[in-house]
Amino acid sequence: MPYLRNCWYLAAWSDEVGDEFLERRLLGDSVLMYRLSDGSVAALSNRCPHRFAPLHLGKRVGDAIQCPYHGLQYASDGSCIANPQGNRATPAAARLHRYPVNERFGAIWYWPGDPSLADPSAIPDLSFLTDARSVGVHGYLHTEANYELLSDNILDLGHADYLHPTSLGSKLNQPLENRWSH
């Protein structure tokens, strides 16, 4: 399925990403996120390029990821930094895709497209999410639906009065003569 790639996506809430690996399928890709010792977040492809083992099943060695299959280690920039096999040479082709990330508004944003186009100023202003006067609910809602339908549903608020009259709807679904009566 084609996706818009040269844009920021909210990948996780800040409090979901810690020292342990968080694996999430985003735009059809398995992405591995974890917090580095300096507090920043790394987001990398979740498959070892050697034997395609899922790296979230591996372990951390400092800020590096150790593959559970043969023990190759990858730095947070995606480069292979250790190979316990054979002559211990680190193959240059053994590299993970590193996604640009930015932590803002209590969320981890990731850029799945061309890294040279990842401009943090393009992240939408959702500062209300961290406003102490607001109450928010964090979580992840897995939906078996095309993302275009979800976007359309969220952006098309006009349908709420008719499709969700008892939960999200308003007085708009009432006959005109009853809408503004006191």
TrEMBL record:
InterPro entries: Cholesterol_7-desaturase, Rieske_2Fe-2S, Rieske_2Fe-2S_sf, VanA_C_cat. Residues 8-110 form the Rieske domain. It holds the Pfam family Rieske. SUPFAM superfamilies: Bet v1-like, ISP domain. Keywords: 2Fe-2S, Iron, Iron-sulfur, Metal-binding, Oxidoreductase. GO terms for molecular function: 2 iron, 2 sulfur cluster binding; metal ion binding; oxidoreductase activity. PROSITE patterns: RIESKE. PANTHER family: 3-KETOSTEROID-9-ALPHA-MONOOXYGENASE, OXYGENASE COMPONENT, IRON-SULFUR DOMAIN CONTAINING PROTEIN. This is Rieske domain-containing protein. It comes from Tardibacter chloracetimidivorans.
